[in-house]
Design a protein that fits this description.
Blueprint lengths: L1 H11 L10 H8 L3 H13 L3 E3 L6 E3 L4 H28 L2 E7 L4 E7 L14 E2 L5 H7 L4 H8 L14 H14 L2 E4 L6 E9 L5 E10 L5 H21 L12
Antiparallel strand pairs: 1-2, 3-4, 3-8, 4-5, 6-7, 7-8
Length: 255
């Protein structure tokens, strides 16, 4: 019990204003000698509760805690990890990028990087969006087990625009294609005049924990541009997933 208490006390150090700490700082703050701290930190890293950003660098909370904290915990851990990749993607394609997680009912938008274009879509972080009518949501549920998907499809699918897919069999066929290609498209399915392309994020167990998407007004984000930018979206999702411990590949990017 003493070992468990000590391990939890180390994790508690990261719950305040300090997001990153060195080995010396952890030892000093915890009152535990450096040798013991090194062994404990090593074990916590192996189990995914802590992560070391660079070799011999500082430590921060690991992605394993995603499994315990729900959407709020996912937001606090995944956003710092994903933000540099989202910014890079936005700058590369010159469009807005967003990331979301599933909150149990809808997709919860937890990060958005906006394009400098004067004509742009401005999402609000914290917004909840439909699963079946957005590229973010479809990228998520396309990876769900059959029993989870069947449970979701047992509810009536709300129509948001004339392009929203509300037929169960048509949506299942559509999701099967998304899973095969590794990318989801939203052709004005949630908001008129807005389109996007998304891909799922996976953790070390291969489970889907979120999704990212590139989105914008259809005056720029037409079908041709979305197809052109899709590989960049997949690459970005894979890079973030690698940071989350995922070791597999994505359709179109198996490495």
């Amino acid at each position: 019990m003493k070992v468990i208490t000590r391990a939890l006390s180390l994790l508690d150090l990261f719950l305040g204003d300090t997001n990153e700490m060195s080995l010396d700082e952890i030892s000093e703050a915890s009152g535990i000698n450096k040798y013991t701290v090194r062994r404990m930190v090593s074990t916590l890293i192996k189990c995914g509760y802590l992560r070391q950003i660079r070799k011999r660098g500082k430590y921060s909370l690991g992605v394993k805690l995603i499994d315990f904290g729900g959407a709020l915990r996912i937001n606090s851990i995944m956003v710092p990890i994903a933000s540099p990749y989202l910014t890079e993607l936005s700058e590369k394609v010159q469009e807005s990028v967003q990331m979301a997680v599933w909150d149990g009912i809808r997709v919860f938008l937890c990060r958005a990087i906006l394009t400098p274009h004067p004509l742009r879509v401005v999402p609000l972080e914290g917004t909840r969006l439909a699963l079946h009518a957005t590229s973010l949501g479809k990228a998520l549920i396309a990876e769900w087990p059959e029993e989870d998907l069947s449970g979701y499809l047992s509810n009536k699918l709300e129509r948001y625009t004339p392009n929203t897919i509300t037929d169960f069999s048509q949506l299942k066929k559509h999701l099967s294609k998304i899973k095969k290609e590794g990318v989801a498209y939203d052709y004005e399915e949630c908001y008129a005049g807005v389109s996007g392309v998304g891909a799922a994020l996976k953790n070390g167990e291969g489970n889907v924990v979120g999704a990212i998407s590139l989105f914008g007004p259809i005056t720029r984000m037409d079908k041709k541009k979305m197809k052109l930018d899709a590989p960049s979206v997949i690459d970005c999702a894979l890079n973030i997933s690698r940071e989350l411990g995922y070791q597999g590949g994505y359709p179109g990017n198996p490495d």
